[in-house]
Amino acid sequence: MIDTVVVAPSESDSSLAGVSWPSIVAGAVAACALTLALLAFGTGLGLTVVSPWTGSGVSATTFKIGTGLYLIVIAMIASSIGGYLAGRLRSGWSGVHVDEVYFRDTAHGFIAWALASVLGAAVLALPASTLVGGTAAGATQGAVTSASQPAGPMDGYADTLLRADPATPAAASNNQSDPRGEVVRLFTRSFRNGGDLKAQDREYVSKLVAARTGLNQADADKRVNDVVTQIKADADAVRKATAQLAFWLTASLLLGAFCASLAATEGGSLRDGTWASRAGR
Q1: At 20, phi and psi to the nearest 5?
Q2: In 3-state terms, what secondary structure has residue 243?
Q3: Residue 43 burial by CB count (10 A; 0-12/13-18/19+): exposed, middle or buried?
Q4: Distance (Å, rounded) from C-alpha 99 to C-alpha 118?
Q5: Of 19, 36, 114, 173, whose Cβ has the fewest other Cβ atoms within 10 Å?
Q6: CB 224 within 8 A of CB 47
Q7: CB neighbours of residue 154 within 10 Å
Q8: Is residue 78 within 8 Å of 253, Cβ to Cβ?
């Protein structure tokens, strides 16, 4: 007969979990609140250094670089404080190896940073979507007002189907009082998702410009080409600015994760009284 020996877990291992969620939540909430406060301060600071007047305020390049650096500073400050609180406020672990304590503290800081990032995204999602939605609604309302008619997904196809040569007398007699709505719909459909103006659409717009402005066909073609080039340049600038912002955000998130993890280990060491021994080795 073989005797089975059952080893009961120690009191420290059974009573305390490896993750202290109250300290993690406290650190995450503090980091999220500090991030919002610093963002509000940065918004006000940014409005004081920009100006719509030429030659006043900082340049666009300086503003973009300054914004990216400020995002990194926000992430480092908020994540460090949140990670420090997550490590300092955690429950003590007795009888746990020093390397395991170091890993748990690092994990507490990282989880606090992750929770703060999720909370921040959830809190900022509604204001951002409201701002973007309001801007889009304003742009749509402006297009509708200028066109004096609603713009739907099928209006572009209807415009193409009912299009007439502006140079003909019949088209001139039936011409709309303001063709802005048709041009807006045509450009919106053509340049959506990086598209371009088709050859037949470009020819039609050139004739429309010539008929409405009195320019000869060559000058009308040049004006259309200049406007199309400007649209592409503006769209490319927006694309590059968005990509740069994404890179700055990625860098700030990565640095925030590192700062939160490091600060949590420092906070845990100060709580356990082992910070001096760790700093001296």
Answers
A1: -100, 95
A2: helix
A3: exposed
A4: 29
A5: 173
A6: no
A7: 9
A8: no
Q: What is the pLDDT of residue 19?
A: 83
Tokens 């600015």 found at: 241
Distance of CA 139 to the CA centre of its chain: 20
Phi and psi at residue 149, in whole multiples of 5°?
-160, 150
Radius of gyration of the chain (CA): 30
Contact 53, 113 (CB under 8 A): no
- For the record, the structure tokens of 116 come out as 């703060």
pTM for this model (two decimals): 0.69
Q: Residue-wise pLDDT tens for the chain (281 aa)? A: 444 443 344 444 445 677 889 999 999 999 999 998 998 898 888 878 777 676 777 787 888 888 899 999 999 999 999 999 999 998 777 777 888 888 999 999 999 999 999 988 887 665 544 544 444 444 444 444 444 444 555 565 555 544 566 666 555 555 555 677 778 888 888 887 677 888 888 888 888 888 888 889 898 899 889 888 888 888 888 888 889 989 999 999 999 999 999 999 999 888 877 765 655 55
Sign of the torsion angle spanned by Cα atoms 54, 57, 62, 67 = negative
Which has the closest alpha carbon to 112: 21, 34, 18, 17? Answer: 21
Q: Give the start-to-end residue ranges of the domains of the chain.
A: 19-145+245-280, 150-234
